[in-house]
Design a protein that fits this description.
Elements: H1 7-19, H2 22-29, H3 33-46, H4 66-75, H5 81-92, H6 98-107
């Protein structure tokens, strides 16, 4: 998917279209005729020519279960992802992958780095 035209270019095309014609403004700035016509019509209708947001909205099937997951973490901060998956399946009948669960928690800064159990070091922390 291409990037949208800059707001500066959009405004210059609309200003030129108001002074001359939409087709001449399109030719002058090297944009499509239909594009210049749409931009000028958008300014007449809404007063702005800003680009619409690109891409899909980022949602997760875990959004509605965020409070439940935060409660699990508050109850036991070092709970594993596998244990969270098991609780989600048992209590909410929701099956999710490890990657989905991790990405959801990471986006909300709810990750916890676990240390491997090993004997204490004489030299320092391990």
């Amino acid at each position: 998917m291409g990037r949208p035209y800059s707001l500066d270019l959009r405004e210059r095309v609309v200003d030129a279209a108001a002074a001359t014609s939409r087709r001449r403004a399109a030719a002058r700035f090297g944009v499509g005729i239909a594009t210049a016509i749409r931009w000028a019509a958008a300014v007449e209708a809404t007063g702005t020519v800003a680009a619409r947001p690109q891409g899909r909205p980022r949602t997760s099937k875990l959004d509605s279960h965020e409070a439940f997951l935060r409660g699990l973490i508050a109850e036991k901060p070092d709970l594993t992802l596998e244990a969270m998956r098991a609780r989600l399946l048992a209590e909410h009948d929701l099956k999710v992958g490890l990657g989905t669960l991790w990405a959801f928690l990471d986006a909300r800064d709810l990750t916890y780095k676990k240390r491997q159990p090993m004997p204490p070091s004489r030299n320092g922390r391990t």
